[in-house]
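Hey all, sorry for the wall of text incoming. These are the three entities for the joint prediction.
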Amino acid sequence: MSETLTTPQFAGSVGVPVLEVDDLHVEFRTTYGTVSAVNGITYSVNKGETLAILGESGSGKSVSVQAVMGILDTPPGFITSGSIRFHGEDILKMSSHKQRILRGPGIAMVFQDALSSLNPVFSVGHQIGEMHRAHQGASRREAKAKAIELMERVGIPAARERVNDYPHQFSGGMRQRVMIAMALALDPEILIADEPTTALDVTVQAQIMELLSDLQADTGMGLILITHDLGVVNEVADRVAVMYAGKIVESGTIDEVFTSPTHPYTAGLMSSVPQAESKGTRLNPITGQPPNLAAIPAGCSFHPRCPHARVGSAAAPGRDCAVEVPDLREVRPGRKSGCHYSEELYGE
Amino acid sequence: MARYIARRALMTIPVLIGASFLIFWMVYALPGDPVRALAGDRPLTPAALAAIRDEYNLDDPLLIQYGKYMLGLLQGDLGTDFAGRPVIDTITQRLPTTVRLALTAIVFEIIIGLTAGVLAGVRRGSYMDNLVLVSTTVVVSIPVFVLGFVAQYAFGLRLGWFPIAGLSDGFRSYILPGLVLASLSLAYVARLTRTSLAENLRQDYVRTARAKGLKPSVVVGKHTMRNSMIPVVTFIGADLANLMAGAIVTETVFNLPGLGRAVFDSVLRQEGFVVVGIVTIFVFFYILFNLVVDILYAVIDPRIRYD
Amino acid sequence: MTDQQPRDVEDDLGGTQTVIESGSPQDQKATETTVAQAGGELRQASLWSDAWRQLRRSPLFLSGAALFLVFAVMAVVPQLFTNADPNVADLSRSAEGPSGEAWFGYDIQGRDYFANVVHGARVSMAVGFFTVLGILTIGVVVGALAGYYGGWLDAVLARVTDVFYGVPLILGAFLLLSTLSNRGVPEVSLALMVFGWMTAMRLVRSTVVSVKDADYVQAARALGASTWRILTRHILPNAVAPVLVYATITVGLIIAAEATLSFLGIGLQLPEVSWGLQINSGLNRFRDSSFLVFFPSLFLSLTVLSFILMGDALRDALDPKLR
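and here's what came out:
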């Protein structure tokens, strides 16, 4: 349990976190070689809290939650080690039947592109109500009534009239609301939202995030928000885990990570975002390219792009950035960093 | 919806007219004298010749001939063959055989083609997948009439399971020709199902269905199949008409007294009215089934607009 | 694409008869987006080099190509395969079975059957290639016109295509040929062309429609390129891949169609040496001398197979989404 982080407001109030992911590794085995998409990530989510997993595309953030959800495409994706515990019980060791019935009431997921993620040939009411029919044996009528109720709850106007409409008849934002209604159908304890607003207009993005926040406040579910958008993280998340090349490189509460990063990658992310107060000054983008997951650099995977990397004789003993793999370690109470030189660079 | 159907139906009329005119033109305007063919070796007096030409409107310009023919057709009069027998009688007598043959074929096409396609598509690269790919390639490569001989030789002559030709054995007589007639379409259906299913299994909504905690059988059998079947159903629907036309070869090989065989015989005898009548029926079915498929398509795929 | 009209759907369907797996609407959606987004010669270049790399390693393609080469050489120089004269008849050996001396035995007239079957490759290949060449010519011209100009021209050409689709290939060619008293390779090819061009037309048309508004085409237009240049340099190259796949498979299917017509007695005529005719005449002796039907059938099927194999492999190689 010392591995897990709890947010201040929930610290002590809950014994076991709802969801604990421990040292998870995921590989993709393709004809061109093996790609390590997730390389040992550990996090936990409590009731009522929002964990944001922040990272560039290819950092393994989506793959890690697909593994949690049990919807990894196998092959080519394989979970090679680690555990995913739901209320203390390892999902990976459950029977496939038990895993399956957990999806929906236990953990549910909202996907990025609602148009392609909803089945084009079934009405939205059918797709929402299918949750009740499959998991609770509801009748067609009951399922439809529940679907209407859920559609109203996520703010779809004229839900009763639109329940028989098909996904392509909705706007992008409304479609995403349908996805959310479907995910919420069985009051999940954990909701995973994988880039829920990326495909939407900016104004609609804000509405959807607000909806997710409100729903979370109502239901007390834990929310895992996968995103590459710092702004989104800032608005809704309690804690944030920053991913790079399949690893968490930094984690902590949102305020702390944003105001005083303890990893050069996070620091680089913060200074590459345009901000109103820094208008007129140059942005400092991170140089170089995200690593190829089939050939992750040895040592700290960020070192080829890191402005502070210490390599060879410049490095302290046992802390050569190009050789030694840094652990994710607690640098301050509630703060973890995966940088050898976090203390030197960013203070205690 | 009703307006959509009406509009689609109206659109088929020019096609029907065009196609029947094309056939009419081929049979009547191109070289070859049906009257001389009719006469055979018998000498005909000029008067008798003129009488025949007049009876069949052979001296009118092509368009007039066609117009008269179509007027007759609308009243159910397709003319007579040279023996004086109404063409419509030949058609009504022979149609059931061809329809039975086509239906037998479509049953094989659906059962074998769909099963093979699903088995192959669910697990791409598996043993079953490769088996289906190889066997469909072989089937597509063997011309239907050759396949007919192979079936006659193996199942009829050697094994004696089914009659080699003719209709002497009731329903069993239709099995071999039905299978042979279905072979090409069956291979297409298997391949189309395979690709369509494999492609749909990669779609995002399948991932969603799994994330909803649905049974794997529901994920594939309901969510994926419903989408995968859209192209397959449309293919099978339109293919029914092709099967009827394909009967020309199958009925000849298996010596079945259907419309295909009748077209074959009357082309060799240059019995223009019979040929035009039967081929027009084929074209009518072809266009009708395509219309049905269009409507069906709009029903099973909600993304299609009716306007 | 979501407001796709049934008309387009039928376009797909028309193809399925001749192009195996010509595809679902998703298919078309995928090609349209890739074509529209990428555009330009870069994509084309990498498409071809990737495809070639894949083909070289594909056992199916290699076996298809090997078979094709054998039959192509057989069609051009049959003497390489047999010294026997296909026309020398020895009636005393009529329908004599295969032996070490005559691998395929003798036909009813007592001619060396192997020599006859080998010489049959020529007309099959000739009909296959001439017909497909004609089909492509009609298809590209009509398809490009309909797709590029759209409007009433497209509507009229679409109806004309429908009319010809209404008459199935074998049936139409059968009727047309029955009105001709001399039926050689040109006549049979022509008949098959007349009733076989529609799928090629729709293939070209749909490619043209999908790329004619692409940004790089707009750019070319803005820079003052002529219609001819836009069509030949910017639009039609996109159709080369699907048309090539279609053409390869269609050569095989046309060869089968020619044999069917000749078998029915309405295709090529004696003294032309054709597998369909050989099968037809062998049929009289089917019960006691089935080899007379077997050998030409085998050669015919292998020839068709070679094109199907190459076409299938080509499609897999040229369709990036299947990788």
